[in-house]
Amino acid sequence: MKKPTKGTDRPRVLLVDDDKETCVLLQSFLEEDGIEVLGAALDGLLAAQMVDQLMPDVVVMDRRMPGMDGIEAAGRIRAAHPEVEVLMLTFQDEQEPDRLTEAGTFDYLLKGCPPSLIADGVRRAWRVRHPE
Asked: How many domains does the chain have?
């Protein structure tokens, strides 16, 4: 796990998905695209704890996870750290814009979308706090 760094000129991300392979693949792509991945959590509760420690700019989180799902975790993260943006990954049948908005998510994308869309979403979320 990497230590948090302040004042970087690129997005720093925490990945959250209960499928470890998804985290590994997404980390590889995002890092190749110039995005710093601070770590990965396999559930929402661990994600909230890791945000406290790592202070990422953006959390890329799966909507559906056992235990604490992505919406509940996003709400907890945003309540404790309003400066951290959450980009939710969801399935077509899980698009719940009202609940996602209430939880404070920045935006959502469909799982399985091209990784370039996720990288673009991360950069858009990052620019909220780091305007050019």
From this structure: 1
Per-residue pLDDT tens over the stretch 66-100: 888 899 999 999 999 999 999 999 887 666 778 88
Q: What are phi and psi of 39, to 5 degrees?
A: 170, -175
Does residue 55 sit within a domain?
yes
| Dihedral sign of CA atoms 35, 79, 46, 2 in order | positive
3-class secondary-structure state, position 103: coil
Residue 54 in domain: yes
The 58-62 sheet, strands edge to edge = 36-41, 12-16, 58-62, 85-90, 107-110
| 3-class state of residue 67 by DSSP | coil
Which residue type occupies 115? P
Report the CATH number that the domain containing residue 58 is assigned in CATH. 3.40.50.2300
Facing residues of 107 across strands? 87
Report the C-alpha gap between 124 and 59 in whole angstroms. Answer: 12
* Runs of H (alpha helix) within the chain: 20-32, 44-54, 70-80, 97-102, 115-129
> Does residue 100 lie in a domain region?
yes
